Amino acid sequence: MHEQLKLDNQICFRLYAASRLVTQAYRLLLEPLGLTYPQYLVMMVLWERDNQLVSDITHRLMLDTNTVTPLLQRMEREGLVVRTRGIADGRQTLVSLTHKGKRLEDKAQNVPTCMVQNLLGDGDIGGYASLVENLDTLIGNLKKTL
Amino acid sequence: MHEQLKLDNQICFRLYAASRLVTQAYRLLLEPLGLTYPQYLVMMVLWERDNQLVSDITHRLMLDTNTVTPLLQRMEREGLVVRTRGIADGRQTLVSLTHKGKRLEDKAQNVPTCMVQNLLGDGDIGGYASLVENLDTLIGNLKKTL
DNA sequence: TAATATTGTATCGTGTGCGATATAAATGCA
DNA sequence: TGCATTTATATCGCACACGATACAATATTA
């Protein structure tokens, strides 16, 4: 087996494993808030700006409606968001935060700090910025091929 | 919002997005083979060495039996592997490749090359090794906290 | 303007991931 | 030996992801 072939497996499997570990680490922090990681992502989008369309959220999270719609339905059932049909355009669905959803932002204040701690551990990661940059390159390349 | 807090979100969401994009890129390559990406990972473990225990596979893929067992059951249904109960230790389940499973290795020869192409795109391989290294550090840190 | 195409969401089915629990086989220990 | 404990795997339930499809509302066009 060629060197490059191993390399491929290494990088892909590492991304797969790292992603799952990140989600697991978030679970410990988010469970007290009653959120999953994908739900937390939606909340972050809405905390940044309230009242967004389903399509805004799908674009922001690079997901499709067949993932986001059920996600939002569960969050609506939990009383975190409300979905209302668009007035100007009846096809659209507007997603807005409830009181409970807004209040949750305060409780989530320490989550990012904890996650940085989890990622960095005791030591520094020298190439933190370069890691971000490399991931962006990777993501850009993959998007082009899809 | 502090700089670090944004940074956290960036890196975690990037890992999440990159992982999904990798899976999507694999889907195009693996669908002709009748494999999903997790199934392909299992096949790679078995192509490297046949006749392994469920626990060997779970450790190798950093997954638990509640994920791997149904995965193997689907693969057995597809005629890719056979699961046999351990002789020495009746608790164990030994997973071995069928003829069909072994033959699939040839058809999958070009998959890693294609994926490297997808990951690298036109650009160079600069920072590829450091990306692997940084991901390993990240994975190591996350494992420690879980 | 009526017919057609497009767009924005939603629904359905399948395959993971994973916490929680179950079960049978092996082990340990009184 | 008998029984509690541990171990290896399996089962169950829920929440994603995503391809495929459906559907209603808007836009287009003949």
Walk me through this protein's architecture.
Two copies of one chain form a homodimer. By secondary structure, chain A is mainly alpha-helical. Chain A has a domain at 36-98: Winged helix-like DNA-binding domain superfamily/Winged helix DNA-binding domain (Arc Repressor Mutant, subunit A), CATH 1.10.10. Chain A is 67% helix and 8% strand. Chain A contains seven helices and three strands; from the N terminus they run ααβααββααα. In chain A, strands 1-3-2 form a three-stranded antiparallel β-sheet. The first copy, chain A, is globular and about 55 Å long. The two termini of chain A are 27 Å apart. The interface between A and B is large, with 56 and 55 residues. Chain B binds a DNA duplex (30 and 30 nucleotides) through helix 1, helix 2, helix 3 and helix 4.
Mean pLDDT of chain A: 92
User: Topology as H/E string of chain A?
Assistant: HHEHHEEHHH
Total beta-strand segments of chain A: 3
CATH superfamily annotation of the domain at 36-98 in chain A: Winged helix-like DNA-binding domain superfamily/Winged helix DNA-binding domain
The helix/strand class of chain A is mainly alpha
Q: Into which percent range does the helicity of residues of chain A fall?
A: 55-70%
Poorly predicted sequence stretches spanning 5 or more consecutive residues of chain A:
none
Order of strands side by side in the largest beta sheet of chain A? 1-3-2
Q: Characterize the main sheet of chain A.
A: 3 strands, antiparallel
Number of helices of chain A: 7
Q: What overall geometry of chain A do the principal axes of the alpha carbons give?
A: globular
Question: How much of the polypeptide of chain A forms β-strand, as a percent range?
Answer: 5-15%
CATH architecture of the domain at 36-98 in chain A: Orthogonal Bundle
Q: Which class of the domain at 36-98 in chain A in CATH terms?
A: Mainly Alpha
